[in-house]
Amino acid sequence: MLKTMQQVLFSSGLQLPKFTKDEKQQGKDYETRTYQATKWVSITLSGTQLDETLSAGFRRLFSYIQGNNYNKVKVEMTAPVTGRVDPGDGPTCESHVTVSFFLPEEHQDNPPEPSDPEVFVEHRKEFTAYVRTYSGFSNEKMKREELLKLLESLQRDGVPHVEKPFYVAGYDSPFKLANRRNEVWILKEEPQG
Length: 193
What we know:
The chain has 193 residues and is α+β, with helices and mostly antiparallel strands. It is built from 3 helices and 9 strands. Strand 4 (81-86) and strand 5 form a beta hairpin. The protein has a 9-stranded antiparallel beta sheet with strand order 1-2-7-9-8-4-5-3-6. It is 22% helix and 33% strand. It is globular.
């Protein structure tokens, strides 16, 4: 528990999902990453306030990694915590947000079974995302601004991409004060066929 609390507090030594960068298809203000197929523990919630929905999901998933699962197994904290956002139809409509923790390598083959009926193990296939990184204590306004900047960059560069869903990603504990890392991800549009 102490190690997990240190990781949560200081965001150091956390396992990350593996990806490769496409150096040929880099924008000057974003990266192109292809993530390997992996398993994540996730929960989907609905809400009109993104940050509140992400926090509620985080708390439920943190309970899972603290041993609130059928196996009573504690799972190491990883990064990033992602939020897949499927926006509602209007500005005051609920969005569906899937909050996820990457499962560490030692649990990829056999993840502990969630005991919370809304928590599930997600099998993410390999995917490519355009990623914009920014620093500071992220909030809804910053996420929206960074997402718009990334969309503008992709349109500027003529890069085919998916309009929705989009992802937000956070790498740091709220107790880390400097050198914070946040990201927004937009998925690459895959050719039909």
